[in-house]
Automatic annotation (TrEMBL):
SUPFAM superfamilies: HD-domain/PDEase-like (SSF109604). The keyword Nucleotide-binding applies. Keywords: Nucleotide-binding. Transmembrane segments: none annotated. This is HD domain-containing protein. The lineage of its organism: Bacteria, Bacillati, Bacillota, Clostridia, Peptostreptococcales.
Length: 231
């Protein structure tokens, strides 16, 4: 079996999180995604207490735990989210499976975008743009269909949307509809990724913090998309 196929097959596992750890331990992962070496050496900063690799694994585990929890999402959203995740992403993958890859890759641009300011603070400005380019090239190496690569690009390129709207407290009608115009139905995947990214980070910074407010932001945006924008 080609190494690329091993990674693709892992996306259909119940626990892709565990499978990726296994691939890393047997030295296969770095052969498929060479950037994982740099991911392990970068990432710690004011907002992250672990490296990019471990954070990405934590976010992926958060996602798998979330979608396995039957009543996590509010009842008015469950069927829409389920339908989205089960929809076709090309390359014999559904969006649930491709989103797992997007979550693992979402910060892959950080090593190449790392800067240190005059006060010694680490920054990763523009890492989502750099990471999207890396993800696109990886998609080509994995022989993914163009449709699949385009969606992977969207997940990585726009994964900061929920964090930005949360930090700026800007959930205005104008801002949300601007996002919806850009992403369409894939705003669902992007918001799910953003939620798991934030929660995985916050749980390490403050284990006792109630992350319910992050869920409220995510579900507010999803509700506006499904019940106002689409209709």
């Amino acid at each position: 079996m080609k190494l690329q196929n091993i990674l693709i097959d892992s996306l259909s596992c119940d626990s892709t999180y565990k499978k990726i750890i296994e691939l890393d331990e047997n030295k296969t992962l770095e052969k498929i995604i060479p950037k994982t070496k740099d991911m392990k050496l970068n990432g710690e900063c004011k907002y992250h207490v672990v490296n990019v690799y471990n954070h990405s694994l934590n976010a992926l585990k958060e996602f798998e735990d979330t979608i396995d929890e039957d009543k996590f999402f509010s009842s008015h959203l469950r069927s829409y989210i389920k339908d989205y995740l089960n929809s076709d992403a090309g390359t014999n993958l559904n969006k649930l499976q491709l989103l797992k890859l997007g979550i693992f890759l979402h910060d892959i641009g950080k090593p190449d975008s790392k800067t240190v300011d005059t006060e010694g603070r680490v920054h990763f400005k523009g890492h989502e743009i750099v990471g999207a380019d890396i993800a696109v090239n990886l998609g080509k190496d994995l022989d993914l269909q163009e449709k699949t690569i385009d969606l992977l690009n969207i997940y990585v390129r726009h994964h900061m949307i929920l964090l930005v709207t949360y930090k700026t407290n800007n959930m205005s009608h104008e801002k949300l509809f601007e996002i919806f115009e850009t992403l369409g139905d894939d705003v669902i995947g992007v918001l799910l990724l953003g939620y798991c990214d934030i929660v995985a980070t916050r749980k390490l910074l403050n284990p006792h913090e109630d992350t319910g407010v992050i869920k409220i932001y995510m579900e507010y945006a999803l509700t506006n998309y499904i019940y106002k924008y689409k209709k």
